[in-house]
Design a protein that fits this description.
Elements lengths: L1 H10 L6 H13 L3 H13 L9 H8 L9 H5 L5 H13 L3 H13 L6 H10 L10 H21 L5 H12 L9 E6 L21 H16 L10 H14 L4 E4 H7 L7 H17 L3 E6 L8 H8 L3 E5 L6 H10 L5 E3 L5 H4 L7 H11 E2 L24 E2 L3 E6 L13 E7 L2
Parallel strand pairs: 2-3, 2-5, 3-4, 5-6
Antiparallel strand pairs: 1-9, 7-8, 8-9
Amino acid sequence: MGFSFFEFMLAEGKPITENIIGMYLHICVNNNEADYVLKWYDMWRKHKLEIKPNLYSLIIKGICQSRKHWRQSLDLLKKQPHGKTYHTIIAMACHHGDMDLTAQLLREMHCGNVEIFDTTVVEVLKMMQVGTACYVPEALREDVHKAVVKMLERHRQERTYPTLDVVEVLQLYFRRPYGSEGETWHTRLTSIRRDGTCDACEQKLEPLEISQEQFEELRRQLLEKVIKGTDIYRQTTPDELESFLNFVNEGAPYDIIIDGLNVAYTCSKAAGYMRYKVLYDLVAHLVHDHGLKCLVLGRHHMTNKHRGSYIQKMTALADCFFAQNVSEDDPFMLYATLQSGPEARYITNDLLRDHKYLVDDDMKVAFERWQQSRQLKPKLNSMSKGRVAFQAIRPYDTVVQRTEQAWHIPYDDGTLQYSYDLPKRWLCAARLY
């Protein structure tokens, strides 16, 4: 019915919109109607009609559903040479066991700097019958190695994590003699000790730190864009900002900067003004038991009657700055922490994601590393005997890591719920000598 409609429209000389074509192709692809996609494509070429670039991936996907004619999709690949279209054709080449074509397409992706998806790598590795004896051409072995490295380097650069399914295929790949550059590696799904040592190979992972130069540049950018940015007065007033800057510049450096409201409302199930006893107990513990100089950031309403008794006691132990009730305290916390030097830490469960995107692209990784190494996150309702439990700070960087001796690949085992969750499980692939 749909194809007849196109024939009628063309015969009558009526315009066919891009939306109608897209809907038709979607229906064909979703119902595995490769013959209708081919028929439509032949008709379109016969009439020498223009195909919009965003339709090529759909046409390629539809043609690749044909066991007999899927190679026709190669003619269209030059029109839309991106990762999605390459993946569709490579998947079919792998399905038919065409190692030479697979190697050719992988080489094109590498030379054209086309992004390679995890699913593409998995398709290729499965075709190579990982874990069983089979002949693999030298050309394919080299191209697959480049594809695996490129995929893992992308995960490292973007600070993302492959899934367990991907890692299990990689584990088998590294075990084979045609794994990484024809070598055999010992692999194990493992964990990392608290000091950053791999349980499997005993190697130390990269420390979670930034250089002094990176810290200074990060401080400069955050102060320029967060504190002096054009939107800062949406979060405070000029007088309040000047008062805060003078307050911190006179009192810094601090060891710990505390988001008072965040701590009061996350560390205990206590209600009402007793929440502020939780905050006071934390400050007292840090000052008396650890000898730390603290700055507590809060709001004016925290000094109200009933709450004020604990707040008053707290001001005798630590510097406190109470902003207007409508002010945002994140910029204040960032400023105070950065002004206190690279060793200062801050306590909050806030993610500060908005501020990460204010820094230049080449500093985003430095911001994440600084944040992960300097932020103390209180555990929910963790106050016990006047003390708060914090989530452990990992001294190592949770990203794909490579040395001459090993790969260490953190992966999502299905337990990560939020974008800021860090994996606990790793694939260790260590070179065998």
